Amino acid sequence: MSTSKITIKMLTPEEILEQYAGIKPEIDKALEHCSGEWTSLQIITSCLSDPSNFHIWSVYDGQERIARASTRFIQYSNFTALHITTVGGKSNGKMPEWSEVFIELLKEYPQLDCIECTGRRGLLKPLIKAGWSERYTTIRKSLKEGFNV
Amino acid sequence: MMEGKLLLPEEILNRWAELSPMLDKFLEHTHGEMTAFDIAQECINLRYQCWVVEEDCVITCVVITRIENYHRVDSLHILGISGSGMKHWQHFHSTLELFAKANNCTKISQWGRPGWARVLKGLKGINKEEYRVVHTVMAMELIT
Residues of A with CB below 8 A from B13's CB? Predict the structure, then answer.
């Protein structure tokens, strides 16, 4: 594992527009593991049209950009969460450091009560190590013929 | 072949590198009301329309419009036009007219530099309508 430092930066809407051609395939790749809830276009246009609620982040290990994530605020009845919609790239084995850096950044948003992520089981181990807790298992049953997500 | 069309949000994103400098060009003649990014945001939110005229897949003209809903009439307002060789693409105006009518607009309006009155003079609508100067826009810059 390299000793370089993890940094995370939120892209401005202007940067998202300028860098669309590069961002879209990265989100598409992350969405390969999803069930069709979103398309990359829907995520990106949400970030552009409602930037206070939808965001795209770049993760750097030293000078190298290693990952891209998209998030949104979710206002539940009793608390507000930052929901990680997609994350793609490589972690360089530094997921606990990502988590620490990100949580530090989120102090800028005092309205947030927690951060959450729905993802593959592979994320569990490094995130639990970083102090996260498993809260749900999502199970789904299609109610329509041909709807198979 | 020269074609005029309305861009979908995805096309605006895909073609932003071409569109951005063209929008900046007409924004040079405005007074800081908006940036090219603001226009993109409005178009992606479907509040403005971004029209382009293309020749061999190259954008030769960009027109930004929005529908103004007044109390008694609706108008398709042209916020800006960028491009050269207007006489080669002015036939595209009929596309704007049809869009305006499909959206219950009874007029097309534009604010611009005084030179536009000369440029638009003689441009005929589908039913031989013509542009005429109906207002002078005045502004006072306030010291705040």
Answer: 17, 20, 24, 41, 44-45
Cα(B21)–Cα(A47) distance, integer angstroms: 22
Q: Among B14, B16, B44, select the one facing A45 at the smallest CB separation.
A: B44
Q: How far is CA B40 from CA A16, A58, B36, B93, in A?
A: 12, 22, 6, 22
pLDDT band, very low/low/confident/very high, at A9 (cuts 50, 70, 90) = very high
pLDDT tens sequence across B86-115: 777 788 999 999 999 999 999 999 988 888
Chain B hits for A14, Cβ within 8 Å: 37
Q: Which two tokens stand for residue A35?
A: 């069930």
Element (H, E) at B109: strand B107-110
Mean pLDDT, all residues of chain B:
92
